[in-house]
Description:
Radius of gyration of chain A: 14 Å
Shape of chain B: globular
Number of helices of chain B: 0
Helix content of chain B: under 10%
Order of helices and strands of chain B: EEEEEEEEEEEE
Largest sheet of chain B: 6 strands, mixed
Helix content of chain A: under 10%
Largest interface: A-B, 24 and 22 residues
Distance between the termini of chain A: 37 Å
Oligomer: heterodimer
Strand content of chain B: over 45%
Structural class of chain A: mainly beta
Distance between the termini of chain B: 41 Å
Largest sheet of chain A: 7 strands, mixed
Strand content of chain A: over 45%
Number of strands of chain B: 12
Order of helices and strands of chain A: EEEEEEEEEEE
Amino acid sequence: GAVVSQHPSRVICKSGTSVKIECRSLDFQATTMFWYRQFPKQSLMLMATSNEGSKATYEQGVEKDKFLINHASLTLSTLTVTSAHPEDSSFYICSARDSGTGIGYGYTFGSGTRLTVV
Amino acid sequence: AQSVTQLDSQVPVFEEAPVELRCNYSSSVSVYLFWYVQYPNQGLQLLLKYLSGSTLVKGINGFEAEFNKSQTSFHLRKPSVHISDTAEYFCAVSDTNAGKSTFGDGTTLTVKP
Lengths: 118, 113
């Protein structure tokens, strides 16, 4: 089945530094990837939709200059948290859908990245 | 706009007992419906989905769900749970056109020995 590889699984960084999270579709092409943020004991909040070859679409309230998304190829999307602060500490998850199948086939999720900013 | 309401935030149940996790949704357009499971510190795994056709859908790990259009519900059931089913379960809806998913707040299923 479809697999999405997300790295790193866990990262600790100092306040003010930037962190890059990668999301790769291993055996399928993904024209669209989604980035979510999940706080403890809460649901997934969509941050942005990453479109291959074009600018990402951000949800209301998400700072596009802080959360930089790049989708340079059909198999790779990256999320960079710039000038990270402790309040950015969270669980970040990506998901992708095989562009060769219909929307109803659901999404494959990455394993998530636990970001801790100290 | 779509919304999803998972009616129970926590469901404790004994091993081998049946369980039902409830999900109601609202939408002004046609939707697809999904249930996902999340184990601690992991991403989400698709359990099952309803696209069209038979309203009873079967998924992995012995789970099934029934789509009820009149009640706008998509409840998840399992006749006999195992300790390993302890996890967070999310109900989600997707617009059939845009594809973005809206998730419920999740239900924590705890299976006790």
